[in-house]
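Handout, section B. The chain below has 92 residues.
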Amino acid sequence: MTADATTPARPRRRAFVSREPRISPDQARRQGLITHLAFVLLGQEEAIRFLNTHNASLGARPLDLAIADPAGYSRVENAVQLLARPAAGGRQ
C-alpha cells in the first residue's frame, strides 16, 4: 500500500463567503459609472479620496449614495462635476 492510500483525506476548506449582501446589477452599473466619471474628471487619487470619504454636503459617503438609487447617483454626479470645474479666477 502507498502512503497516499493510508493518509486520510484532508477535509475540503470552504471558500471565503462574505456575509455582506451583494449589490444588484443596477447598483453595480451605477458604481462603475460614477467611479469612471470621477476618475476622468478628478484623477485617480482625488476620485478615490472623494468617493470613499464622508461628504458633509451630501450627508454620506459619495460611493454609498451613488449606488443606493438613481437620485443619489445624480447628486454625486453633480458634486463630481462641481469639483472638476476650475476655480474662479484660476487657470482655464
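Note. The radius of gyration is 22 Å. Compare this with the example in section A.
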